[in-house]
Amino acid sequence: MKSRNIFLGIVFLAVGVVSLLASIDVIDFSWRVAWRLWPMLLIFVGIAILPLKDWLKALLMVVALAVGVWLYQGEARKEAERRHSGWSTSVRQWWDELDDDVFDLF
Predict the structure, then answer these.
(1) Residue ranges per domain, the chain?
(2) Least packed by Cβ within 10 Å: which of 2, 9, 36, 52?
(3) Mean per-residue pLDDT for 4-12?
(4) 3-class DSSP assignment, residue 27
């Protein structure tokens, strides 16, 4: 079996599992945050095509995956901070105040 087929199968399997777990609220996952880490895909593909022994490729993949999870958590934390303290919160507050003012007229 070709390693390219195995790699592609693992990618589809991982995307499916993560999507399923996120949709049933087992994990908190955002594709927007994950998309910021798209260069990790280049790293995984690079590791897959390196002419190394299989055990070494597997070790490098595990290390790269651990780094990717660590980076994702940092980006998700930044996204949550931006979401709670950003422009959208002030717009929501403005809208609520405007809504209250309009109803005060009646």
Answers:
(1) 3-105
(2) 2
(3) 76
(4) coil
On the question of pLDDT at 66 being above 80, the answer is yes
Q: Name the maximum alpha-carbon separation found in the chain.
A: 76
Read off the tokens for 96: 């609520």
pTM over 0.85: no
In whole angstroms, give the CA distance from residue 59 to residue 20.
26
- Tell me which of 13 and 84 has the higher pLDDT: 13
Cβ–Cβ under 8 Å, residues 32 and 79:
yes
Residue 105 CA, chain-centre distance (Å), reads: 46
CB contact at 8 A, 72 and 37: yes
* End-to-end C-alpha distance for the chain, whole angstroms: 73
Mean pLDDT of 79-105: 63
